[in-house]
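Re: the request from the purification team.
They wanted to know what the chain is likely to look like in 3D before they choose a buffer screen. I agreed to run a prediction and write the result into the notebook, where they can find it.
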Amino acid sequence: MPEGTNIEVAQILTESETRAKKEAHHQLVEILEAIVLALVAIATAWSGLQSARWDGHQARLYGTSVTLRIEAGLAATEGGQQRLMDVATLNSWIEATHVKNESLSALYIRRFSPEFRSAFEAWLKTRPFENPSAPAGPAFMPGYHNVLLEEAARLNSEAAGAFAEGTEARAIAERYVRVTVFLATVLFLIALSQRFHSRRVRVGLLAVAVVLLAASLVSVAMYPRL
C-alpha cells in the first residue's frame, strides 16, 4: 500500500476518534443539563408549594390575631365596667354605712363581684376608717384581681404571639420565593449555554448553574416545611 494512502487512512481514523470524543462529550453535557433541568423543575414546584402553604399559614395566624384582639377588647371593656360598678357600689356602701343603714349596706355588699367582695372583706380587716395607712379601697388590696381584665391581658398576649408567628411565616414564604428566583436563574443559564457551540463556554455556564442549583437545594432542605 502506498505511503500516501496510509497517511490518509491515519488522518481519517484520527478525525473519527476526535469526532467521537466530541460527540461523547456533547452527549455528556446534554445529560447533565437534563439532570439539572429535572432538579430545577422539582425544586421549583416544591418551593412554590411551600411558599403558598406558608402564605396561607400566615393568613390564618393574622386572622387568629385579629379575633383574639377583638375578644380581648370586649373582655377589657366588660372588666373595666365591672370594676367601675364595684367602685360605685363601694361608694354607695360607704354612704349607707355612714348613716347606719345595715340592710342597705348588706344589699350593696351582695352586689359586689366575687373577686371584689373577697378583696373587700380583706380590706375591712385593715380597719380602713381608723387606720390612715390602710389601702384606699379593696381594688388596691394585693389579693384583688379582675378576672375579665386578666383574661383580656392573656388574650392580648396570645394575639401578639399569633401575629409574631404570622410575621415569621411570611418571612419563610419569602425565602422560598427567593429560592425560586435562583432556580429561574439556573434555567436562564442552561438555556443560554445551549446557544453556544464553544465547549468551554457551555461547560462554564453549566458549572455556574450547578453551583446555584446546589445552593438552592441546600437552602430548601434547611427551611421549615409545612
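For the purification team: Residues 119 and 147 are 13 Å apart (CA to CA).
Please add any questions underneath this entry.
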